Amino acid sequence: MTLLVHTGHSENVPEWTYPISPEILANNNGYITLANKENLLDSKYAPKDLVEMKLRSVVADDELRKEAAEALERMFVEAENDGYKLYVKSAYRSYSTQNTMYYNRLDKMGYDDELVAYPGASDHQTGLGVDVLNYEWTQKDGMNEKFARTEEAQWLAAHCHEFGFVIRYEADKEELTQIKYEPWHLRYVGKEVAKYMYQQHLCLEEFTEDWQNYIAEYEKLGMTFDELLKVRARPNEILVVDVSEDGEEDYSMFY
Ligand SMILES: [Zn+2]
C-alpha cells in the first residue's frame, strides 16, 4: 500500500498577509509598472505584445498590450449591454510619439502647461494606458474634467476595475500623480490589483509605495522577497509512505 502525503514547504516561510500575491508584485509582466516624472521609462522601452484593437475609435490604429486589449474589448461589450457606447481616443504611444507631442505643445504654449506628459513619463508608453470617451466628447477638440459628469464616465468609474482597469489620474490624487484629473484615462493593472486599488482608493503611486513598504516589512521576518518567490515556485513536497505486507514502513521525499 502506498500513501501520498502532501507536506507543503519544509522551510520556515514567514506568512504572506498582503492581499496581492508575491508573483503579481514581482511584476514580470509589467502590469504594475509605474511611469511618471520620477520614474521615467527608457526611451527604448516598447512592449512586445502590442495588438491592434478592433473597437470604435477616433483614430485608425489603436494598439494596447494583448491582455489589456482583450479586457478593454470585454469592457466595451459590457458597457454596451448597459446602454453606453464607448470610444477609444488614444492608446499606446511610443517614446518618440510622446517626445514629438511634448515638444509641439511646448512650442505652442511657450512653457510646460503639463497637459502633455514628459517623454518617458507617459502612462501611454506602457501599452496599458488608454483614453476612453463617449460620442459627444469625440467631437470636441480638447479634454477636460467635465467629462466626469457624463453617464459613460460614471459607468467607467464604477465598473472599469471589474475588467482590470483603474482611473489612473483621480481628482483627489493630483498632488501625488502630478497630473490633472483625467476621468477618461484608464490604466490596465490586472483584476486583482484593480480591485484592491479601487477598494482602498489608491492611485498607482500610492499602491507602489504600499506594496514596497509591505515587502520591506516582510523581509525583516527573515526571508528576502526573491527567496520567497523561489520557494513558492517549487512544487510542494510529497511524502511517499510505502507500507509493505509485513508492516514495515518505507519513507521517501519527492519535490
Ligand atoms: Zn491618457
Description:
This protein has 255 residues and is of the alpha+beta class. The chain has 2 domains: 1-27 and 203-255, no CATH class; 33-188, 2-Layer Sandwich (Muramoyl-pentapeptide Carboxypeptidase, domain 2), CATH 3.30.1380. It has helices at 22-25, 66-81, 95-109, 135-138, 151-159, 174-177, 191-200, 204-219, 225-233, and strands spanning 2-8, 50-52, 63-65, 87-90, 129-133, 165-169, 182-188, 237-243, 249-254. The strands form 3 sheets. Strands 4-5-7-6 form a 4-stranded antiparallel sheet. The model has no long low-confidence stretch (mean pLDDT 92). The structure holds zinc ion. Zinc ion is lined by residues 90, 124, 129, 131, 185.
Strand tally: 9
How widely separated are the two ends?
21 Å
Helix coverage percent of residues?
25-40%
Small-molecule binders here are: zinc ion
Mean pLDDT equals 92
Q: Give the spatial strand order of the biggest sheet.
A: 4-5-7-6
Structural domains: how many: 2
Task: Note the run of SSEs as H and E.
Answer: EHEEHEHEHHEHEHHHEE
